[in-house]
Amino acid sequence: MTYREALRESLREALRGDERVFVMGEDVGRYGGCFAVTLGLLEEFGPERVRDTPLSESAFVGAGIGAALGGMRPVVEIMTVNFSLLALDQILNNAATLAHMSGGQLAVPLVVRMTTGAGRQLAAQHSHSLEGWYAHIPGLRIVAPATVADARGMLAPALASPDPVLLFEHAGLYASEGEVDDTPVALDGAAVRRPGEDVTLVTYGGMLPTALAAAEALEAGGIAAEVVDLRSLRPLDEATVLASVRRTHRLVVVDEGWRSGSLAAEVAARVAEQAFYDLDAPPERVCSAEVPVPYAAHLERAARPAVDDVVAAARRTVG
């Protein structure tokens, strides 16, 4: 099935299996979701459980937090990560803090889904990759499924978590296809997507296809790249990343976010702190250009990390 269909099936399974689960957000009902993830769910489950909301992210994310506090299991959809900034007060000051401020008396089992990433010529207000910002916040779990199987398997454990979970879906992945099963996916573990012994490529979400394509290109030149998909951005699975770097002795982090203050910087810093003497070259970071994402197709392509950029960075580490 496609990535989009996998998300829809996971939502359908959750709605069927637990009467506390409901979906809410802009155009999730009659329109079927802006990216067609919730298509058909309104007809199957009705307007009480698939709720169209006003265009007010702060209001409907706040309503989701209240519902979670009241014992429900809401799945809130925000159209794009850019628009989630309108609900940042609710996410940061309420969802992420209430369990700690109540001494563990209050849990917020809330799932917030949102689309991230560029590549569709939708310009700056619809195309940024801000998941690294959210990974900065204690009290949240941040996940970024990069495969169809992960898209299918991450929702159930997210709904079972007592902590709020933000699920970032890259827009460029919705039409991708893959095999799935019914195995839940742990929310705190990275995955080695391709083994190698010469350089470690660490990435997540929509950059996984780029990293895998770069690994193919490097193999043609005699360089075996290991590709690590973080999957979880908070908490980070340091152990898998460090084990890979200790095998390959080189690191390239591929991140669609901006370079300054990026998740790539966090990964590189942790490797430098904990595996400095295992490195045979300085860590490399391949990130988006530090500009608002352009509208023009050729400029948008130039602003995002490309296969050639990753290949060049990996070759620099190998020397």
Structure description:
By secondary structure, the protein is α/β, with parallel strands linked by helices. Helix content is 38%, strand content 19%. The chain contains 14 helices and twelve strands. The strands form two sheets. It has a seven-stranded mixed β-sheet with strand order 2-1-3-4-6-5-10, sandwiched between helices. Strands 7-9-8-11-12 form a five-stranded mixed β-sheet, sandwiched between helices. β8, α10 (208-220) and β9 form a beta-alpha-beta unit. α3 runs parallel beside α5 (88-95) and α10 (208-220) packs across α14 (307-318). The longest helix has 15 residues, at 3-17. The protein is globular. The N and C termini lie far apart (41 Å). The relative contact order is 0.12. The mean pLDDT is 96.
Provide a compact summary of the structure.
With 319 residues, this protein is of the alpha/beta class. The chain is 38% helix and 19% strand.
